[in-house]
Specification:
Layout: E1 4-8, H1 17-29, E2 33-36, H2 51-64, E3 68-71, H3 87-95, E4 99-102, H4 107-116, E5 123-125, H5 129-133, H6 144-154, E6 160-164, E7 179-188, H7 189-195, E8 208-214, H8 218-230, E9 239-246, H9 259-267, E10 274-276, E11 289-291, E12 294-300, E13 303-308
Parallel strand pairs: 1-2, 1-3, 3-4, 4-5, 7-8, 8-9, 9-10
Antiparallel strand pairs: 5-11, 6-13, 7-12, 12-13
Length: 311
């Protein structure tokens, strides 16, 4: 049976309508009955419509019964809506089979659901319509891994992903044999930190936390990781997986200070293992991750296997 898919815009304005049209056509070629939400191309300042428009979009998509709700892009805007969202409506849509997909600013919605509607079922941290499925040939086209993971996830066939840990010094594998089980949660690091101390923060202990970031220098990433550590969040997890941290400019005075040294500085302050190399974030290649699913992680040498649905 063909799955229905709606592209919706909950946050930043879609700067190129053509990108959404390309995404819609590409998703149709993948077998989805893809359509654009009525407000997908709305514009208000830097947002995809004013707050009322975007709030109505989320509630409309939740009530529609669509199989897949795919965010057009991230940016900024979800935080404005959190206090007014009908969390029960969103949760019911998940219980009825709607799969919500996206990343970046959508992290606020995904983690808010863990705070307000525990046990409603997972959402998917994954691609965005414009940024991933709307890529032109000159931009490299749609990434094969991103596409394959998305299709498998939407057909409930994706049960695990693997990657090679990249943070440890070359030739070492200090976590060889490490295993962990827990709730998989996380998303964009800035968005995760922005929820701390709010009613929308999910209090998760013994979880597997994944994080990614874009456009932030390693010192800013370190500062946010330290905020999570000092707030007791990192120490309460079984493991932390760090995905892509990209599109930042090194400074002339860094003098050997890199993302790896920043992560190492945080690792020295927590017993929770921090593993780098997760292929998820604002790069073209990204795996889909079920936010709110029970997951199991195994490290063999430097190879990391993350699975869900088997715990």
């Amino acid at each position: 049976m063909t799955q229905t898919l709606t592209i919706f815009s909950p946050a930043g304005v879609v700067r190129e309508a053509a990108a959404l049209r390309r995404a819609q056509k590409h998703l149709a070629r993948l077998g989805f009955d893809a359509s654009l939400d009525a407000s997908a191309l709305a514009k208000h300042q830097r947002f995809a419509g004013d707050d009322d428009t975007r709030l109505a979009t989320l509630h409309r998509v939740a009530a529609s019964g669509v199989d897949v709700a795919l965010a057009a892009r991230g940016g900024y805007g979800m935080t404005r809506l959190l206090d007014r969202l009908d969390w029960a409506l969103i949760a019911q849509s998940i219980a009825n089979g709607t799969q919500w997909v996206g990343q970046s600013d959508l992290t606020a919605l995904q983690l808010g659901l863990l705070a307000h509607a525990k046990g409603c079922g997972p959402t998917w941290a994954g691609p965005l319509a414009a940024d991933d499925f709307g890529r032109t040939a000159e931009q490299g086209g749609v990434d094969d891994i991103t596409e394959a993971c998305f299709v498998e996830a939407m057909h409930e066939e994706l049960e695990a992903i693997g990657f090679r840990e990249s943070g440890a010094p070359r030739g070492t594998s200090p976590l060889d044999g490490f295993e962990a089980e827990g709730l998989l949660w996380g998303g964009n690091l800035s968005m995760v930190c922005s929820l701390l101390g709010t009613p929308h923060w999910p209090r998760i202990k013994g979880g597997i936390l994944f994080l990614e970031e874009v456009g932030e220098h390693p010192y800013r990433v370190e500062r946010m990781l330290l905020q999570l550590q000092q707030a007791g969040v990192l120490d309460a997890q079984r493991a932390v997986l760090i995905g892509d941290v990209s599109r930042f400019k090194p400074a002339p005075h860094d003098r050997g200070y890199t993302l790896k040294t920043a992560v190492a500085a945080v690792q020295a302050r927590t017993a929770t293992p921090l593993l780098m190399g997760l292929p998820h974030g604002h790069e073209a290649t990204k795996v889909c991750l079920p936010v709110g699913a029970k997951a199991q992680m195994v490290v063999q040498g430097r190879d990391v296997l993350l699975a869900w649905g088997h715990v």
